[in-house]
Specification:
single chain; 647 residues; alpha/beta; 20 helices
Amino acid sequence: MSTPYQNAPVSSGAPVSATDYDGRPVLVEPEVRRLDGAVREASVPPFAPPVTHGSLADLPFENAEAAPGAVALSRRLPDGSWADVTAARFAEQVLAVAKGLIAEGLQPGDRIAVMARTRYEWTLLDFAAWAAGLVTVPVYPTSSVFQTRWILHDSGAVALVTETAAQAAAIGPELQHLPDLAHLWVMDKDHVERLAEAGAQVPDGEVAVRRGMLGPDTLATLIYTSGTTGRPKGCALSHGNFFAEVDNAVELLHPVFKARDEEPSVLLFLPMSHVFGRMVAIACVRARVRLGHAPSLAADDLLPDLAAFRPTALLTIPYMLEKIFNSARAKAEAGGRTAVFDRAVAVARRYGEALEARQTGTGSGPNRALKTQRSLYDPLVYRRLRAAMGGRVRYAICGGSPLGRRLAAFYAGAGIEIFEGYGLTETTGASTVTPPLKPRLGTVGWPMPGTRVRIAADGEILLAGDHVLRGYWDPQAGGVVPATRDGWLATGDLGELDDEGYLTITGRKKELLITAGGKSVAPAPLENWLRQHPLISQVMLVGDGRPYVGALITLDPDGITHWRQMIGKHPVPPELLTGDPELTAVLQRAVDEANKLVSRPESIRRFAVLPVDFTEWSGHLTPSMKLRRAQVMRDFAKDVESLYERR
């Protein structure tokens, strides 16, 4: 860790200082409140004072004035190399594109939609749109035509920027149903550059005037939820929401954003259509952390980008960390080093748990023997793992779903500290996060500074703070309708707070399975545990109204290919493997291990292996990798019924 933290008592009211008189970060512990002996509420005061004027549109220009020659971003070139962009140059580009948007007739408050993968132009357009007084509306590049039309219509977008000509062509036939949409631009056709040229005659002062009209309460973006249970809703997030989220995150996650021993940098590869990716991009601009964009999550594309960019931190989801781990083990197995790898994993987990014990005051930390073992395996295993991420990664912020204690301990022991978080689109990103130097593996940490977390009587997590959205977009009601009741947002998630204010996610309120015997089962713990298995891609528990819990399992293509090669099994189509006795035995052992986590009424009694995977393209996953359970139940109804047939 780059700088030592100190503990500080919690205070209430005004923001607390995030650093002491030496400039060292201070760790402020949550204040907890109990009801009937159980912790029902935890809160941490804000580290950063609230922003009372200005907007996100000001950030590029403030950076250009304060440090014009500093590298603000790095832009990926077609040949895979990276070109640095200074703060002054980025501000010039933002100004030019903002003037182009004004020249095209867009008015303050107009909505402009962006449909693209994670790339430099996304962040450029975001800040340019804000500088022109507009509201950005992200659209997942993988969205169907129907989904895209719905978002464009509901938001009343007057302009759409797509990444490719194919995306623009797909929406073409829908234009007759979108009377508000007057502009359609394509990144790959250099339309962003043409916008900058089109605004050459617009005075700089026009942008300054529009920026001056914005404040913390001004609407910044409409982000549509991915819709696991129904039609997406537009979450109306203000400039102030982002400031409250970003400023407190930067102060809390001091090692990520303010490391003193090396220049921090972040390679963003998560979708910018998702609030997590947008929040990270804004945080990097706010904290003047060098930011790069990688458009593809495919290993063949992402690994070269990591190697060339060499970030110090990653913003990721559990799925990616699971894939990296499973890939590393498969390579070790193919090279005849399985035993070495597995011993290294065991050592890393013990080491990570020992670090946790020391940091939480429950142990003395790694002993000499454990340190020696870790030193032995570092060049053999851990260093290779870090090299696959670029060689400089020391921190990873992970969200979207629980990572799990085993994997978090392994990465900590391997030299990559994981800050696990929990949040929603409605909370502008994270509402809780693992506190630096005081992790509790398997939890999603403490409330973010400025956040209150409450557990309702039925176990639902309620959230409050300045980062919570203004409301949901409802054009029928004339704009934004409130989303909170008495200041508290009902998340739909279930959780528990421990005595020190750490939050554990136990499931989704709407996803609870009630068996025929009346047992309530939260599927997430078993699903997340099984998904870490190298042969398993996705898992969905079933059993609502049934006599016991069952599971639908899909196979990981890379894992299955490796498994076949290792046991000498000939290549066969996936559908022919679903009943393979050797594979069934391997999966049964995994299920048996997972069942040790729960009581017998909650355990998986039978499972079915499906011949296809759950994907976003098939409609079974959202773009943020969450299960669309109703769709899975409809499409695989026969497989579910087979789990309850008498043998």
